[in-house]
Amino acid sequence: MDDECRGAWTLVYKLWFIFIPVLTVFVFTEESTVLASDIASLGDSEPDLIGHKPARRNLHDVAKESTVLVSDITLLGDSETELINHKPARRKLDDVDSSISIDCGIPEDFHYADVKTELHYASDAGFIDTGLNKNISLQYQSETLQRSLMNVRSFPQGKRNCYTIKPAEGKDTVYLIRASFMYGNYDDRDQLPEFELYVGVNSWDSVKFDNASHIVMKEIIHVPLMDSVYVCLLNTGSGTPFISALELRHFHDSSYRTQSRSLLLYKRLDVGSTGEMVRYKDDSYDRIWFPYNMPNCVPFDTPLPIDSLGESDYKLPSRVMKTAVKPLNDRDSLDFDFETGDSTLEFYVYMHFAELEKLQENQSREFDIQINGLPWKNSVVPNYLNSTTIDTRKLVRGTKLSFSISKTSDSSLPPILNAMEMYIVKDSLQAPTDQGDVDAIIKIKSRYAVDKTWQGDPCAPRTCWDGLNCTYTGYDPPRIISLDLSSRGLLGNIDPSFADLRELQYLDLSNNSLTGQLPDFLSELPLLRFLNLTGNKLSGSIPSGLMGRKNTGSLDLRVDKNPDFCQSPPCKKEKNFVVPLVAATVSFLAILLALVVYWRFKRKQPDVKLVVKSHDEEGSLESNNRHFTYSEVVSITNNFQTVIGKGGFGTVYHGYLADGTQVAVKMLSTSSNQGSKQFRTEAQFLMRVHHRNLASFVGYCNEGTNIGLIYEYMANGSLQQHLSDKTKNALSWKERLQIAVDVAHGLEYLHYGCKPPIIHRDVKSANILLNEDLQAKIADFGFSRDFPLENESHLSTAVVGTFGYLDPEYFSSNRLTEKSDVYSFGIVLLELITGRPAILRSHENTHIVDWVSPNLARGDIRSIVDPRLQGSFDTNSVWKALETAMACLPSISIQRPTMTQVLIELKECSTIEIAHDETWRMEGNTFETNSVDPEIEMGPQAR
Ligand SMILES: *[C@@H]1O[C@H](CO)[C@@H](O)[C@H](O)[C@H]1NC(C)=O
Ligand SMILES: *[C@@H]1O[C@H](CO)[C@@H](O)[C@H](O)[C@H]1NC(C)=O
Ligand SMILES: *[C@@H]1O[C@H](CO)[C@@H](O)[C@H](O)[C@H]1NC(C)=O
Ligand SMILES: *[C@@H]1O[C@H](CO)[C@@H](O)[C@H](O)[C@H]1NC(C)=O
Known about the structure:
This is non-specific serine/threonine protein kinase. 24% of the residues lie in helices and 25% in strands. Strands 1, 2, 3, 4, 5, 9, 12, 15, 16, 17, 21, 24 and 26 form a 13-stranded mixed sheet that branches. Strands 36-40-41-39-38-37 form a six-stranded mixed sheet. Helix 12 (733-753) packs antiparallel against helix 18 and helix 14 (819-834) packs antiparallel against helix 17 (875-887).
């Protein structure tokens, strides 16, 4: 029950990578919003298209002139019939409003609306620092060519060049990223290059061309692990990489989400279409669908819209779904196959169906689907004018994928197929560099304007930025271990960001023009072995921390050739003889003062109280708390026989009072200075607060160095132990809800029942104790703070708390409000629901919120709820609890509810669950329950 915070703070930087993403989401949001809206607002100035005739260009002609390739598979794009229904309507971007469309290689301030899609393309200048703008050769320019293919950005320099895109939605969201390339002999060399494309640190695909007018499009569905998406072009020695256009679209739901994987588009087919390819605005996600017809089939369609009453999960375009094929002969199956040519590739297949014919009463359509001769899905019955997707995401592989859709024996009508998507599954094996390191090195890069070749991920894939060395261990995020910035003309002070490269071992800043003092923060880098500052303009002397490291030989520190720097004492600015004198005087006075204070303290207060200030209203409570002598404590604990807990500040023992009451005795370890302060804080709070859901305080001991606090014994230990101990009986859902209600009561009392209000600051499952009736009480007020003034909205204070539970806003701003406790409570609630800890060590230290959110987005409640509950709970109750938990967790504190609101919600959950329980029993089940109505049990609160 003692604090892990000390430990946690030393782990700060190990856990850094968990938190920084959380924080950066919130830091970056603003920035990227600006970006997105910039693009949007650029788009508004449609009429003044700069330097360009709004030429009439029909996209479908592109298909005629040059084959459009998607992921190296040639698709037929012949089209003639349909005329584009092109209204110069006001732009309404729907789902693509947060999309980013970049025309690579146009001058910096250019932007325009694409004639066909009306999507707004902006210059790539804001997304990349390197490369040259080029026009494709006149010979390949044509009225019909999509505007974004007219220019390219080419990268004759550097092995790796990266675009950095910060979409407003941040990491952990599903994006569609599409890169387009057309060589068009832009460099007049008539030589088709070949190069590699990367997304983040993972290989995406290689780019190859058949000829200069060959349009290659690469599309990937990707869930980035970081807030920035890097799209990188890698020079493999087979020609200069270039790019024509880059587009990013955002899927609002998680239909295409896969576990830490990316989906590389293989085929997206508008089956039965006789028209042109379909994209935005028909497809609100701007997926591109290519017409496809298989042999021995009849295309057919309906004039009626599909999904007119509501969008399907995949938001399938009506235009795509209203065409389909059926076999020539009604008794035949639909058979078709694709040569993949690579048996190692794994595919996800999505098939989309909608019934296009109004069936008569005696008609039915039902079919089975097979892949490579094996059953995939049986008894599919398409809905009339409504989409159904078969997306079991079965992994399939083989050099050839054969599909067969055949009617079942009961079916009177032949099978159909409206649309289909196939993706190659890409495993993301390489983790991106630790986010803390990335943030630090990016700051260093911009602070000292280092090198434009520093792009993309600093350490990955397997090559790092010039001047950096990284460690690679398994699939862990790489860390930066050495940084050589010698002779780079660095100016100014040594930036604190260096100290954020927590695994740094080697730092060379020699032969630059760094000025100012040598800061001591570098001594905080635990692994630093080599620090070279030779040949700079530093002043001052070696600070104590670094001096200590140097003296113990753990650091090779070099500061020669800094003319104003004093390397070893005596340093001329320090008046050596004064220092010892001053020091001696000061210590003498200090000792004297201490003696006086000690003596007065002893004299005046034989029965020393820890209480510094006491409040009138709680005066009566104080008398309940006894002072114990050390010998009494020894006898209570039977000479400290049974240890029941250990923490940074001391040890907790089990004991019996004379009347047989069990107690827990927390003794402060003699060495802990900080601990003593916290003990006092805690004792002060314990004497003031009294509530059935707060740990009750029995007394204290304060004799010399023997300082201890005595509490009511909580037989069932901490909630954390209870949830993690798999040998104990799992807490039932009802018990968990009751615990949540208890804790919420306790916090509500602290926030609104105490004057001045109290913020606990360290709410976590380890600080929630359970008595023998599983009644929950909040313990450990060592970090609690009064929240004094009504007229102040927040308190600025140093951040304390425990990682995993710590409010990101408080963490980043130091602004403390009672909503910080609400955040921590939300985490505890998630722990109760999932049975998992705040930080999932088994999932690469994933924060519980990041683990729950995607499952929640999928509506996959079963995978969230603690499996030990074995499904015995009311789903509505759990849903509501989950919603309540998530409501506590926005990174902006004002968006969180108060504990009073939370309490109301939780009581409702409890009511639902109890009702569910009772129904269950009335139906004849024998189920032991100590059903207590939480409302009744609560009673009046001690305030
Ligand atoms: C260029 O390559 C594409 C794809 O291979 C092909 O369909 C097209 O006919 C070629 N164009 C020319 C002009 O050779
Ligand atoms: C590309 O062509 C435009 C005119 O169409 C011209 O203004 C521009 O300077 C050209 N850019 C390059 C890099 O040649
Ligand atoms: C970085 O790695 C390179 C290549 O392995 C090596 O030559 C160099 O000495 C390393 N630098 C540091 C500072 O460790
Ligand atoms: C110091 O850096 C300058 C450029 O900043 C370079 O010309 C010079 O050779 C470097 N000297 C040494 C000793 O590395």
